[in-house]
Amino acid sequence: MNPRLLSIQPSVIRALAAKKTPGSIDLGLGEPTLRPQQRFFEAATRWVAENGTKYTTNAGDFATRERIAQHYGYPGMSEARNVCMTTGSQEAVFVTIKTMLDADVDELLVVEPAFPAYAKMAQLEGIATRKIAMRAEDDFAYDVDAILGAIGPNTRMIAIGSPANPTGTVLRRADAKRLADALLARAGEPIWVLFDEIYRELTCIDDPGYLPAFYPYTIVANSLSKSNALTGMRIGWVMAPAPAIDSIVQTHAWVTATASAFGQRIAFEIFGESGALAEQAQWYRTQRTAVIAALRASGMRFIEPDGAFYACVKLPDGLDCLDAATELVERRGVVAIPGKIFGATLANWLRLSWVAPIESFTEGLERIAALASAPVRG
Amino acid sequence: MNPRLLSIQPSVIRALAAKKTPGSIDLGLGEPTLRPQQRFFEAATRWVAENGTKYTTNAGDFATRERIAQHYGYPGMSEARNVCMTTGSQEAVFVTIKTMLDADVDELLVVEPAFPAYAKMAQLEGIATRKIAMRAEDDFAYDVDAILGAIGPNTRMIAIGSPANPTGTVLRRADAKRLADALLARAGEPIWVLFDEIYRELTCIDDPGYLPAFYPYTIVANSLSKSNALTGMRIGWVMAPAPAIDSIVQTHAWVTATASAFGQRIAFEIFGESGALAEQAQWYRTQRTAVIAALRASGMRFIEPDGAFYACVKLPDGLDCLDAATELVERRGVVAIPGKIFGATLANWLRLSWVAPIESFTEGLERIAALASAPVRG
Question: Omega into A305 within 30° of 0, i.e. cis?
Fold first, then answer.
């Protein structure tokens, strides 16, 4: 057996989800509750009737990749050849880490709070990880100086999500520029940034910073899972400058050969219809306003999300988030995710997703506030 | 960069495919030319209209896995929990090798001629490979004694395809039983067998041996790509006894999270309709009879395929298969795959797929026979 696999802690989220009782309020969900746009499934099914569903090239269907590259238009990665279609953004992140780092010498810097998979994937590949925590007193905003200060001699890649899971934090335009300038000014081998923008369409602030617009050593991971309620379709992609993308395609070819041609066809349709990618974004903006009002009313300390569909709330000091989440799921009918899986800095926090109806969110929040104000221990 | 990736030779097949001229006869294809069964796409699209397309659990949709496990009914792996849905059988093989072997000590034994990905994936994972070649004078039939004799002190897994790519060789029932008995009689840690049965439905002999029926340390990789002309849908699976399957699911969870829910729904439909899995098999049986007649008429030495949709033909000694394939694609309008990518034992052979219309296959074969009888060098 692979000893690295055995060393990785099993997922806390799955263990909690298994304890969920019928009728409980699920604020643990990491996927939209909206329905996907049915017309794209119908178009792709008609396309299969005419064309079958054959292997695409390893990197994916050329026309689909061209539409995606042109849509974003990031400098140095605006052509079809800069895109590799993957099985969701999970595979996009996995093949990027596996390809770009040498486990014998390189190190991944994870900016926390962060999606736990970055560090777990590095662990699976035997790649060392360094972590830098953003500060609660800044509402976990990206602190460029802290990130730069955390770079070690072997740091070869920095993983940043924007909007971030779990905090919803978005890298601001001025910070993206400053980070890019500072990284470009460094001597020696360039440091790659893995820029995970899976929640990009669900951005609710006016000055988001798209790092690939400023920094040529950026590798982008994205998918249609969150923007278009297509989590189950597994349509993701990596965008990277050449020749890095060619190596990433090679790894992808060994791991999964190609992404689903059917899923790629859906992407082709979505990127071919103006506004289809952003069609569901308004729902999240409306929901976010109601969610922030409910959070204010709860009296709890919370992080106002810049984007994504999560909100982090603080528990009293001394109340461990895993104990709280266990109590909530076992006895109070609420699923919430313990913050510490996203970094030690969130040991007293819970991540709540707000894809449920606002009434359910508010009811769940009240139960959490009740626990926070008078925790009952078993 | 990952130095292991850099050490892997790029695919010869892709390089040859890139040289293909318009109007040439493609005997290089590794996928069906039949159309997939459209009704299953329509059913899955209706299902999305009602249910959306959400994440399944990492292992996959329970009902789909249950149908698959019960369909095969292999002892020790006949329940839903024994199945992990993957992005094609490529990911099935990848996660199996990555999970079950410890790169520091274990070794994979590849029975050649073999699908090149087994050894390439092991190389990517830093796992040592040992190879044992079946003999041309036996028409590359599986030689159980040779396989057993090749097991080294660190061999922890044996990779066997049946029907095999490229020879179409099927492990016979008596040989499967003998291999299982001998492996079970060994002292020490059990040796796993990775049994790749992606061409299972395209079996044309009467006594195929399904190793998992006899040997409890078998891990099965399969998919709907070849049986149902669904290469582009990427619906594969691993079947394995517990607890091995649980570790494989863990790796899969990091690599791709889950397989496509839409693809899984298509599998659910196919395994729910009696005969749907074997519906296209008759076409291959009819085609195979015509192909064997054409091969006999060509006068070339060939391997009569037990299954799959390939035939290997021998070139004259001294004519390297890569030189021949290059000459064929560049100047004679035929794509054929050089045998040596499947093992050194095929250095004088070509792999021809026979999914093209029989007239094209026959014409291509005549051009190859002409080259073989009077090779012209550039």
Answer: no
| Identical fold between A3-34+280-373 and A51-272 | no
Mean pLDDT by 10 residues, chain A (378 residues): 90 83 92 97 98 96 98 98 98 98 98 97 98 98 98 98 98 98 96 98 97 98 98 98 97 97 98 98 97 97 98 95 96 96 97 97 98 72
Rounded to two decimals, what is the model's pTM? 0.97
> In chain B, whose CA is at the least distance from the CA of A226?
B54
Q: Say yes or no: A157 contacts chain B, CB-CB below 8 A.
A: no
Q: A159 φ, ψ to 5°?
A: -100, 125
Contact at 8 Å (CB) between A44 and A19? no
User: For the stretch B202-241, what's the b/e string if a residue is b when 16 or more beta carbons lie within 10 angstroms of its beta carbon?
Assistant: bbbeeebbbbbebbebbbbbbbbbbbbbbbbbbbbbbbbb
Look up residue B68 and give its DSSP letter.
H
In chain B, positions 232-271, which contact chain A (CB-CB < 8 Å)?
Answer: 232-234, 247, 250-251, 253-263
Report the distance separating Cα B303 and Cα A235, nearest Å: 40
From CA A98, how far away is CA B56, in angstroms rounded?
25
How many CB pairs (< 8 A) connect A and B? 198
- ipTM for the complex? 0.97
Q: What share of chain B is helix, strand, coil (3-state, %, to 5)?
A: 45, 15, 40
Looking at the partner chain, which of B5, B230, B232 has a beta carbon nearest the beta carbon of A250? B5
Closest CA to A40 of A237, A227, A238, A283: A227
- The second-level CATH assignment, the architecture, of B53-272 is 3-Layer(aba) Sandwich (3.40)
Domain definitions of chain B by residue range: 3-34+280-373, 53-272
What crossing angle do the helices spanning A38-51 and B38-51 adopt, rounded to 10°? 180
Question: Is the CATH number of domain A51-272 3.40.640.10?
Answer: yes
List chain A residues with CB under 8 Å of B45.
38, 41-42, 45
- Residue in chain A nearest B243 by alpha carbon: A1
> Does domain B3-34+280-373 match CATH 3.60.15.10?
no
Going by DSSP bridges, is the β-strand pair A192-196/A83-87 parallel, antiparallel, or unpaired? unpaired
**Calculated CA dihedral for residues B347, B350, B351, B355, nearest 10 degrees:** 170
Interface of B with A in 31-60 (CB under 8 A): 31, 34-36, 38, 41-42, 45, 48-49, 52-56, 58
Q: Chain A contact for B105, CB < 8 A?
A: no
| Residue indicated by tokens 């769940």 | A364
Give me the residue from B45, B87, B258 closest to A256, CB to CB.
B87
Nearest-Cα residue of chain A relative to residue B32? A54
Whole-angstrom Cα distance, residue A148 to residue A142? 11
